[in-house]
Design brief:
Blueprint lengths: L1 H21 L5 H16 L2 H4 L2 H17 L11 H7 L1 H27 L4 H27 L4 H12 L5 H13 L15 H26 L10 H20 L1 H26 L26 H6 L6 H6 L21 H8 L2 H15 L9
Helix pairs in contact: 2-4, 4-7, 4-15, 6-7, 6-8, 7-8, 7-12, 8-11, 9-10, 10-12, 11-12, 12-15
């Protein structure tokens, strides 16, 4: 028995070592952009190959998710979590995503402006660049803004500036994580709410709430909203600098390209928000407050491949229970509500509300069996 346990421990240690370098898969979507251009030049059909990244992310990854299966590794809280949290490699990898994202935007604009594409190919290319932005800028930016070191805070803010969504840095940490899975949170979708009802409210509320939260913070410090102490001015200002650079390179078409890829990226973010908390709620206590956030208030998905691409974002239940925990030590919890597939599959499903409701509503109802009245 002891030797069997020891062998299993060695196996899990080996998988952790493999996962360490497998997180380099975050570079794959950007590399596929490069490959799609080469394929188009080599074989023609440039309009078709402009969609290669979308095919990879939303078709191939879901298939291989189910072939490869679930992640068997949960780092030990007492030994492995402290050790892994200190490893510099994981931090460097996230910080390197900033220059990679900037390069992707510039390269994406160059290809769009210099390649003969019909409007269909142009649409496919912008959707592809925006999808890379969702994976690199937004997903990695989300990891960084939860950390204390200033370099990570700034890198996270700059990544969000790359996709014109700087308000997320403020609203997500000070708003979403406070009110998650309550009616006060626009990023927590309600039971029976379609994606298309959710998105407009999420766009508007999260933008306005970021400014409200920043105004309250500055007021406590005796400072004006319209001062350089307002970090939103910095992030949105940097976004317009990026737009200006694209304008200087390619004119107004370049400006339109920058904001279009931004829209795709932050829309995918809000779709993921929709998926992560659909129908879940924190119970209201007798004192009028909501119960403390725990691993039961976010949908979890433990498919290994997508978790490697997304720095374990799908272990979202543990993230909300422990917001400052680094991605490499996020844990899977069986008690958390479990999605039937990885995020890429769920994004496609969410685009078709009847299918989404058919799959997810029974899961929500089963999770809250005996408390169905709270879903209304």
């Amino acid at each position: 028995m002891i030797s069997s346990m020891h062998a299993r421990t060695n196996d899990l240690d080996f998988i952790i070592k493999v996962k360490k370098y497998a997180y380099l898969l975050v570079t794959m979507p950007s590399l596929i952009l490069l490959a799609s251009v080469w394929l188009g030049n080599e074989y023609g059909y440039k309009d078709l190959f402009a969609f290669t990244t979308l095919l990879f992310v939303f078709v191939l990854v879901p298939i291989f998710d189910h072939i490869i299966g679930q992640d068997p590794v949960n780092p030990n809280e007492e030994t492995q979590v402290p050790e892994l949290s200190k490893e510099v490699f994981y931090r460097i990898l996230t910080l390197l995503c900033l220059p990679m994202q900037v390069a992707t935007i510039i390269y994406g604009g160059h290809i769009l402006m210099s390649t003969e594409l019909t409007w269909i190919g142009q649409l496919g290319w912008v959707l592809s660049v925006g999808t890379v932005g969702a994976i690199v800028a937004i997903n990695v930016g989300h990891e960084l803004i939860h950390k204390d070191p200033l370099i990570e805070q700034w890198a996270g803010g700059l990544l969000f500036a790359c996709v014109t969504y700087g308000g997320f840095k403020v609203e997500h940490v000070r708003g979403h994580h406070v009110h998650v899975s309550t009616p006060e949170d626009a990023s927590s979708s309600r039971y029976g709410q379609s994606l298309y009802a959710f998105l407009p409210h999420a766009y508007l509320h999260n933008f306005l709430n970021a400014w409200t939260l920043e105004a309250k913070k500055l007021k406590r410090k005796g400072k004006s909203l319209f001062s350089f102490s307002n970090e939103l001015i910095w992030w949105y200002g940097i976004s317009f600098i990026f737009a200006g650079i694209c304008g200087a390179l390619w004119g107004w078409t370049g400006v339109a390209y920058f904001f279009a890829q931004s829209f795709v990226a932050f829309s995918l973010l809000e779709v993921i928000n929709y998926i992560e908390h659909y129908g879940l709620h924190r119970r209201k206590l007798e004192n009028g407050r909501y119960e403390r956030t725990n691993v039961e208030h976010s949908w979890n998905s433990n498919y290994l491949l997508t978790n490697l691409f997304l720095f374990q974002l799908q272990r979202h239940s543990d993230h909300h229970a422990n917001p400052k925990r680094r991605y490499q030590v996020l844990r899977h919890h069986e008690v958390s509500p479990q999605l039937p597939s990885g995020y890429a599959t769920m994004v496609v499903l969410a685009l078709f509300p009847p299918l989404w409701f058919k799959v997810m509503n029974p899961k929500v109802e089963a999770y809250y069996k005996g408390e169905e009245h709270q879903l209304k």
